[in-house]
Amino acid sequence: MHTCPMFDWEAAWHAALYGPGGFFARGEKPSAHFRTAPLVGPELAEALLTLLSRVDAALGFPPVVDFVDVGAGGGELAFAVRSLASASLASGPLASGPLASGSLTSGSLTSGSLTSGSQASGPQASGSQESGSQESGSQESASLAARLRVTAVEVGPPVELPGVRWTSSVPPCVGLLVGHEWLDAIPCPVVTGPSADPWITRWWPALADGALAEVGAPRDEAWAAAVSSVRGAALAIDYGHLVSSRRFTLTGYRGGQQVEPVFDGSCDITAHVAFDACAAAAGGDFVLVSQRDALRALGLSGAVGGSGWDWLESAARAGRIAELRDPSGLGGFGWLLHGNGVAVADLLPELPPWRPNPASFSTG
Ligand SMILES: C[S@@+](CC[C@H](N)C(=O)[O-])C[C@H]1O[C@@H](n2cnc3c(N)ncnc32)[C@H](O)[C@@H]1O
Predict the structure, then answer these.
(1) Is 252 within 8 Å of 267 (Cβ atoms)?
(2) Nearest residue CA, atom 4 of ligand 1?
(3) Separation of 115 CA from ligand 1 center, angstroms?
(4) Which of 207, 261, 334, 353 is the most exposed place for a label (fewest CB within 10 A)?
């Protein structure tokens, strides 16, 4: 860890990840180094498609509906959203779809999960996601699928994936923009307390003398720009902290292991997101809730049933959902959801406010 007061942390962090030969710039994919929710299976995409259907309904079913995955990495989330939607459009057996390699079951795209305009698409409808007419559900979901445009935004090299367009900057869009573990990968300055930096005085007032702190201003700016680029909703999913629980969390990941953050391009370098600062920078109508609560509100339930192969598939799905909802793991991630031209209350029911997960600090 560098201690020289003149060391430019932000420049070094940026060069290590995004400079020539940098970790992400040269094409390292998260799947080779750490496990994120899109890599668990299609269930996160399924929940986000349900959220997108609510955004679509609240926008009045525009002719083109965007799903924009910012910081897309290997494009797994974007591709899963495209594939699940396409499977519903085909309205044939989902087993023929692109995700048919065993992880997607016909029970995982429920008839109510892509409805649009009906009561079942509203945030209070989470308990009824598994009910309703398969036929009408698939008609309505087909309508969304036919209008859906999926974009992966990534500064690293794109990956060829059917139905996913790639770009290196956030485009204007109408629909749902998601930054999944994007903000934590945006480099920040680092200061030592005491600090007169305006971001620190507002957002990290308890910084102790001699202690290090990441200055979250570049993330605030990036998030505010992303939210303003979308008509509909923008969602940041990440690990983070609040003004009441700030910690210096800069760390590295390489080959599935947490490592000392070295700025030579050999590892991912990340730090927790100051959610409250990002939320205030983007402003407007927003909520900050836990992934655990949000997934349940979007209808993901891990019921195990049937017999034989069906039982095995439902048990596997239940295991994946349990991993996504684990309060000491991925379920403890924050979901910062902003509405832009859409009321957040039309997208999610009232849920408990997100609280930082103390377990996430123990390795940070
Ligand atoms: C931690 S990875 C997350 C990847 C993927 N979203 C996931 O959860 O598996 C962060 C990704 O964000 C990308 N990234 C960082 N800043 C970016 C920016 N301004 N625009 C586009 N991509 C960016 C990085 O190149 C990296 O692939």
Answers:
(1) yes
(2) 73
(3) 30
(4) 353
With a CB cutoff of 8 Å and minimum separation 6, the contacts of 349 are 123, 124, 126, 297
Range of the domain at 251: 9-362
In a domain, 175, yes or no: yes
d(CA 82, CA 359): 33
Dist CA 199 CA 249 (whole Å): 17
262-308 pLDDT, tens digit each: 999 999 999 999 999 999 999 999 999 999 999 999 999 888 999 99
* Whether the predicted pLDDT of 181 surpasses 70: yes
Q: Distance between CA atoms of 321 and 326, rounded to whole angstroms?
A: 8
Note whether residue 4 is domain-resident: no
pLDDT at 178 over 90: yes
From atom 3 of ligand 1, which residue's Cα is the shortest distance away?
Answer: 181
3 in any annotated domain: no
Nearest to 61 by CA among 111, 121, 110, 138: 121
Two structure tokens written together for 338: 């902003």
| Residues 6 or more apart whose Cβ sits within 8 Å of residue 111 | 130, 131, 132, 133, 134, 136, 137, 138
The tens digit of pLDDT for each residue in 27-40 reads 998 888 888 999 99
Cα angle 341, 343, 347 (rounded to 5 degrees) comes to 120
User: Looking at residue 233, which CATH number applies to its domain?
Assistant: 3.40.50.12710
If you take atom 12 of ligand 1, which residue's CA is the nearest one?
A: 71
The response to whether residue 185 sits with its C-beta less than 6 Å from ligand 1 reads yes
Measured distance CA(296)–CA(46) in Å, rounded? 12
Which atom of ligand 1 is closest in space to residue 156's alpha carbon? 25
Give the other-Cβ count within 10 Å of 3's Cβ.
7
Give the mutation target among 155, 166, 184 for probing the ligand 1 site: most ligand atoms within 8 A of CB. Answer: 155
Task: Tell me how far the alpha carbon of residue 218 lies from the centroid of ligand 1, in angstroms.
Answer: 15
Within a domain: 183: yes
Region of 306 on the Ramachandran plot (φ > 0 left; ψ -120 to 50 alpha; else beta): left
Q: How many domains does one find in the chain? A: 1
